[in-house]
Write a structure and sequence with these properties.
Strand order of the largest sheet: 1-12-2-3-4-5
Oligomer: single chain
Radius of gyration: 29 Å
Number of helices: 13
Structural class: alpha/beta
Order of helices and strands: HHHHHHEEHEHEHHEEEHEEHHEEE
Shape: elongated
Bound molecules: fe (ii) ion
Largest sheet: 6 strands, mixed
Length: 476
């Protein structure tokens, strides 16, 4: 039979296409698995030094996709339970998917739905801020909740297998009656109902936590006081206090007003010197004037110094923002040192650029080596050397002679951390980053990793409060 308007060969081609499509749909699981394995094989075959990160990225992407399919399916299921009639349920499912796609595309739009990509976060319009906030709340909550659902699912299946084995063994030994089996089945189904209810309750927790991190913890600044003992600190510097601010990231979710409140807190701590350890903007180069304007309010008798973060390098504003800071009396140290004098004694304060994270591997290697050579030339023997660097790549290189390194960059473990349960349970550590938060010691060297005050990516902090640090120097 021929379809109206189509010739016989065309109809045959359409029928063949539909048959192939049905086959693909029927075997989607092995096809997806094969595609994933092919991608993994491709990444492993390239075997460069970033293969581990690329594999982690792939795993996160797959978990994200799986979680979105799972939760949209659950939403449609729940809607279907409350709304009778198949046609209505179909329409509801279509509306749910459309709303999801709108919010997703709005948050990732390069097609004019919003002014910019959510990660580039330079769209200050209230409706954009609201939709981005909703998207990220859903993103973080749904992925974390999906993890919990998987854990529960595995536990439930393991319990079922154990119960099945137990029943088999029991019936083999005691020749159990049908009544005993029926009783076991009843117990098993009531346990399953209890487990299902538990999963619903437990999987709600990440959504609550993401809401708390978005609305409260994101700007719940903690002042951390840290004593730093330095073997060769001159006596006159005993009790010298350095306030450290890092990862400012001015943007729609880290507003000028919020940064001004951090400036006021810092000034209220009356530090002797203030150190800024990079990432003043998110991705919008035009925000540089505004962030410099608000940070210009920082006051300390020995001055305000800083270094460049990767975000300044990524958008090419290192020179312009350095000039803007200089006009406000804030000195960015770019492969430079500044003597901090007290009486006849001094500390040697050094600042080194981070460089761009968007550069190629080869460029980063060359730049990294060049900066390391420059750093060696800036270190002063028989003096306390304090290094400001956005991320401490050279920490542990004892030949350098750095006494104290101040850094940031990791936002206390990627802004999501369960370190209060177990140290190392955070996004940064899961990605293989060695230095996350707080004080590290290696031989005579010390490193302080500040959690930063701003955010990038998702506007949520959980278990990683924004931080202003006061480092009080002391002699050993
Ligand atoms: Fe940062």
């Amino acid at each position: 039979m021929t379809s109206p308007g189509l010739s016989k060969p065309q109809t045959a081609r359409v029928a063949y296409f539909l048959r192939s499509l049905r086959r693909v749909v029927a075997h989607w699981r092995p096809i997806v698995l094969l595609l994933i394995l092919a991608r993994v094989a491709f990444l492993v075959a390239r075997s460069n030094e970033f293969v581990r990160f690329e594999l982690i990225d792939l795993a996160l992407l797959l978990i994200f996709i799986a979680s979105q399919i799972f939760w949209i399916g659950r939403l449609i299921y729940v809607e279907g339970r409350f709304i009778p009639g198949r046609p209505r349920r179909v329409w509801l499912a279509i509306i749910t998917v459309m709303v999801y796609l709108f919010v997703f595309l709005y948050s990732h739009s390069e097609w004019g739905l919003s002014q910019s990509h959510v990660i580039w976060a330079a769209d200050y319009r209230p409706q954009s801020v609201l939709i981005h906030a909703a998207f990220w709340w859903w993103f973080v909550g749904s992925v974390a909740a999906f993890f919990l659902v998987i854990v529960f699912g595995v536990a439930e299946r393991a319990a079922r297998v154990a119960e099945w084995i137990y029943r088999k063994v029991r019936s083999a030994i005691h020749q159990s009656s049908g009544a005993a089996d029926a009783e076991a089945l009843l117990l098993s189904s009531s346990r399953r109902r209890f487990l299902e209810r538990s999963v619903v309750l437990v999987s709600a927790t990440p959504f609550l936590a993401a809401g708390y991190g978005l609305l409260y913890e994101r700007q719940n600044v903690e002042v951390v006081r840290q004593r730093i003992r330095l073997a060769r600190l001159p006596k006159v510097f005993e009790g010298f206090r350095i306030a450290q601010l890092s990862d400012i990231h001015i943007g729609p979710f880290t507003t000028a007003e919020y940064i001004l409140s951090c400036v006021a807190i810092t000034n209220g701590l009356e530090p002797d010197l203030i150190a800024l350890t990079g990432d003043y903007i998110c991705w919008d180069p035009e925000a540089q004037s505004e962030v410099v304007r608000v940070l210009a309010g920082l006051r300390a008798p020995h001055g305000v110094f800083g270094c460049m973060g990767n975000h300044e390098a990524d958008v090419g504003i290192e020179e312009s923002i350095t000039r803007l800071f200089a006009a406000q009396g804030i000195r960015m140290l770019r492969q430079e040192r500044a003597p901090i004098r007290l009486g006849d004694e001094m500390l040697n304060l050094i600042g080194i650029d981070h460089g761009s994270d968007l550069a190629s591997d080869a460029e980063r290697q060359v730049e990294g080596d060049r900066r390391l050579q420059r750093l060696k030339a800036l270190v002063m023997p028989n003096t306390v050397n304090i290094l400001l660097i956005h991320y401490p790549h050279a920490f542990g290189d004892h030949e350098l002679g750095i006494d104290l390194t101040l850094s940031g960059d990791i936002h206390g473990g990627g802004q999501l951390s369960l370190d209060f349960i177990h140290r190392g349970l955070n996004l940064g550590s899961l990605m293989g980053v060695p230095y996350i938060r707080g004080l590290y010691k290696n031989g005579g060297e010390q490193l302080y990793m500040n959690r930063g005050i701003g955010i990038t990516g998702f506007p949520i902090r959980f278990g990683a409060r924004p931080e202003i640090t006061v480092l009080e120097l002391a002699r050993t």
